[in-house]
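Thought: the user asked what DUF2000 domain-containing protein looks like in 3D. I have the sequence; next I should run the structure tool and report back without guessing.
Action: structure_tool
Action Input:
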Amino acid sequence: MRFDTKIAVLLADDLAAWQRLNVTAFLASGVAAAAPDLIGEPYVDADGIGYLSLFRQPVMIFAADRETVRAAHARALARDVALAIYTQEMFSTGHDADNRAAVAAVPTEKLDLVGIAVHGGRSAVDKIMKGARMHP
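Observation:
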């Protein structure tokens, strides 16, 4: 099935494995919160056990150096897409309020971005991810 929109996560390629997984989870939650229509119906197995709903469409995961992440962030800001960010400083905080404070303390052009997630039209998201590669 081909979707009109695309969900993409872009991670800095110098992150440790646990950081890549953590950042991906946080960024995906931002996309889900901003677009509840992206969430499908709950799952139920053959024994009637229920499970949480998931995205209705694939999430594409990309990796790139930090300069490419910064450039993708700038391109996302210039387009009509939903955008989530994760900064290096957020690894040293303990909860959501501290995360927001860490981001609020830094001007846009100085954010130390380690990941972004976008949701928007396929073409726009493809242009935003220019220079990134599929995560291995």
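Thought: the tool returned a structure. Summarizing for the user.
Final Answer: Structure for DUF2000 domain-containing protein predicted. The chain has one domain: 5-134. The helical segments are 17-34, 66-77, 96-104, 122-128.
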